[in-house]
């Protein structure tokens, strides 16, 4: 078997060289981190669930005209994606007060915001991904003004779509993180949605109970992380009711052989 060339390894994913020029293979890990990797752990099967959930959401976004890096899912943990130059800005879209916003501004968690807020964070682990303004982005050339307009427009469009998608399955979309990249065609580039959309980067609360169904269960030591991720997959129609998704192929093969 030919060993694939690893391009990059992050906290939750590994990128490998793709089968064709301009493509990569994105591998979803079970590793879990919080507070800028100060807290580390493993959520068994998280990579499998995030792969399926992100595939589903990116596919649906594609149908409404949002350009993304997603091409197709390859297997339980891998996707074929377009290679992009990542814009070094994390885009956080907030509909409800939670997380760092509540600490910074002293707002009670769960407060419905009068309007959606878009925040930008400079992607730098050593600096703790600091909050930045449009002026910083323009000053340091991290993205052009035209690119930032495209990013903001897409972020709002994604938010509108996802609010409806999750409300339809009884889930409140509190906030979420997006990443964007430049997709190059010769000398011309355009901004497309990259990375993933999953319970790792979204705050998702049950509308009826307020139960948290996302990575906050890991951050806050609430337990039940796998069950929460599975519940999101079930409600999205990715797991039949009463059945568990195969999260570990080796264990599944052994059990099947018994």
From TrEMBL:
Gene3D superfamilies listed in its UniProt record: ATP-grasp fold, B domain, Phosphorylase Kinase, domain 1
BP-aspect Gene Ontology terms: 'de novo' IMP biosynthetic process; cobalamin biosynthetic process
Pfam family, one: SAICAR_synt
Gene Ontology MF terms: ATP binding; phosphoribosylaminoimidazolesuccinocarboxamide synthase activity
Cellular component, GO annotation: cytosol
InterPro entries: SAICAR_synt/ADE2_N, SAICAR_synt_PurC, SAICAR_synth, SAICAR_synthetase, SAICAR_synthetase_CS
Keywords from the named record: ATP-binding, Ligase, Nucleotide-binding, Purine biosynthesis
Keyword set includes ATP-binding: yes
Protein's UniProt name: Phosphoribosylaminoimidazole-succinocarboxamide synthase
Species, as recorded: Rhizorhabdus histidinilytica
